[in-house]
Protein: UDP-glucose 6-dehydrogenase
Amino acid sequence: MKITIAGTGYVGIVTGACMAETGHAVTCYDIDSIRIKKLQDCIMPIFEPGLEEMLIRNRERISFTTDYKEAYRDSEAVIICVGTPEKRDGSANLKCVYAAVQQAVECAQRDCIIVIKSTVPVGTGDNLDKAVRLKNTGRHFEIANNPEFLSQGTAVRDTMKASRIVIGVNSPEAEKVLKDIYDRLGQEYVVTDRRSAEMIKYASNDFLALKISYINEIANLCDFIGADVEDVALGMGLDPRIGNRFLKAGIGYGGSCFPKDTKALHWLANFNDCELKTIKAAIDVNENQKIKLIKKARKYYDSFRDLTVAILGLTFKPGTDDFREAPSLQNIPILLEDGAKIKAWDPVGMDNFKKAYPEEISYCGSIEEALKDADICFILTEWPEIVLMDVSRFQLLMRKPIVLDGRNCFKLEEAEGNGFIYESIGRRIIGQGSIAGEHLLRGERAV
Structure:
């Protein structure tokens, strides 16, 4: 089938590559000429394991263009993968979605299905369908919703071996075409109407965000009462009704999906006079959790002025160069404003981060370089290079070895007896007495 992908962002590139892998003839369109030139030269504008190899393998079946007329002319299916950024009020900006659909309708020379893969508010597909029908082009267009459930770092696998393929359609014809597109993947279909498919996307992401915020609140309580959140999460996760995924305590979620989608669903609920208290709580907990290490650091230093702070990890998670909504974006401005000198390391995210902070930060080529003569270390991303490092390096390299681990990278037994203070999330402090004892000394109550 001839398929056009509108938008070569994260979702668009992965979707296009996987469609080509399954035998379709794919054209990817974007207005960003620099990005398209890179893709034409097989240079990846994003970091995603396995993606570059897949594109190279399918060069004969996938092309890239900035000419929208060329892109849409012969398409049998158009998959919309453009961004829906958050507005100030939390709602989704659909300008690019409507523009892409309009271009497709104007340029397509045959009957065509337009598949919305971008995350859009419930009812968007119906509104697009009405707008398309008013065009009177003489060609038949179907509007469908087909949400993506990709995780950065595993996106290729998540597409090729999807847990489910959600098809939101309002006609048997649209259902058949979408099943033809995905037939070679052999995965389970969930066939529903457009509105329900749009809701499935938001409900799925927001539930995972809730789960993360819940375990982080439990971790914060564990800090005070002396329980270990890792053991708590293990005991909870073995219950099949709960499951162990997304029960990893830390300093909050980030990225392009969870923060945006929780706010968008909360806005949608308020717009319809329906209060979603749990979603609002998840958002609030997450924002506070992102600066948890700053609060922990204040126990050791009233001010960060003239201190050297090592930052290990800039991206919102390992396996990606994406730092959108990452905790680094909350912590670094606070540290800089307070006069800290920052040395940062990230295996793939530094080039992107330099665009936001080109001069204020010293970017280091290794973990050791970042730790050298640092007064305190913030671990913000659980990169394998950090998890597997020899923890004795902290004491050997740092001036004052205080390590604040926002991702619980190390077992407590590893940190013990190595001559440095180690604070993580929801676990006892190493190198400085018991959790309960510390809080009692500061006039706080443990039970």
About this structure: Residues 433-447 have pLDDT under 50 and may be disordered. Residues 150 and 159 are 7 Å apart (CA to CA).
